[in-house]
């Protein structure tokens, strides 16, 4: 992408917001929508074990996290519209392949491809918002984009439960197809980005980053099953760390690196990555813990548990949209992240102290879901805003890819901790779930502390059209960093 490109021209705001938020929603939705499908899949693939089915979740997470950073850099070479179309197209085709999978290995391969498509959708969708939305509405647009991700993560299990109960596990993948086609048709209205010849990122470095990130995610997600001290787990973690370090070091010497390491010179962007990592650890463990607690302790069906989880998704979306529209100009990302983290911490302490064996839906679950959901929406909007607006326009997609990769890595850690805590524990009692919630509370607190450094300078008012120079466009979009 070209930093001198004039933002705010082309299709209307509503269409741009819908295109970007739709891609974000689909990509994050498939991180959680298949969580309740394992038992139904077992009826189709009877020869497979529960451990085999866990790869349906794990492979998507690995390829999604591993390719986020390289995908962000790829936008500089092919343009945001082309990357968006490519990502949504791969995701849609892979979703169809998942839905018609005749045997488990076929399904696993399709899930890996689906994760790769999702990795391209995230940076491309935010780049579309930041380049094609008028500066005055940019904060609100980021709020909508963040709301879509928060709502998708929270609503995934409930929507999956409804679809599985009504039409079987294949429906959780088939539902992506019509929406994916609609997004590919709609994005044709977005202006093409200026392609920069010879700007394809370093292939060796991109491969090293993908393999390194994939090795780390694999080791973390499978550690509880393989054993944390086994050679497989330690080998994946060690090899992943070494290869990832090589990819980062190589990026410092390449003319067109796989990731732009200069982004970390920005204190705000670096802290946004830290916030994303710890927030991701809290978010994904919290959401899955809630599903398992309702099913195993309160003995709700998967369908009922899904509906009970819905208020959190609703309030998360309300918070993200409301903060982006109402407080975007007054409350900077620091206040959003700190305030949201405090809400999550408060609810976490409350639940750890009183988590009951008997159902208390109205007087406990709904209030805590509403408050924590609001906090999650605030944190998501704040950190996305800080990461995007602390860098120049030409680095939007790469910055988004790195920041989301940090969140997915944190999410993998959170799920691994949850699996380790619940392994061998009495899952019909409350103690293990209280321990998981305590972990989430600590992670949210660390996220809030890191948010203290998320400071952006007020955006100056340009005195000439943004098309006149790259530096003018940069000022209008980012305003710089404190």
TrEMBL record:
UniProt membrane topology term: Multi-pass membrane protein
GO annotations of cellular component type: plasma membrane
This protein's UniProt keywords: Antibiotic resistance, Membrane, Transmembrane, Transmembrane helix
Main location: membrane
InterPro entries found in the cross-reference section: MFS, MFS_dom, MFS_trans_sf, Sugar_transporter_CS
Disordered: region residues: 461-482
Pfam family, one: MFS_1
Transmembrane regions: 12-33, 53-71, 83-106, 112-131, 143-164, 170-190, 202-220, 226-249, 270-295, 307-328, 335-353, 410-427, 433-456
SUPFAM superfamilies per record: MFS general substrate transporter (SSF103473)
GO biological processes: response to antibiotic
Listed name of the protein: MFS transporter
Species annotation: Streptomyces triticiradicis
Taxonomic lineage: Bacteria, Bacillati, Actinomycetota, Actinomycetes, Kitasatosporales
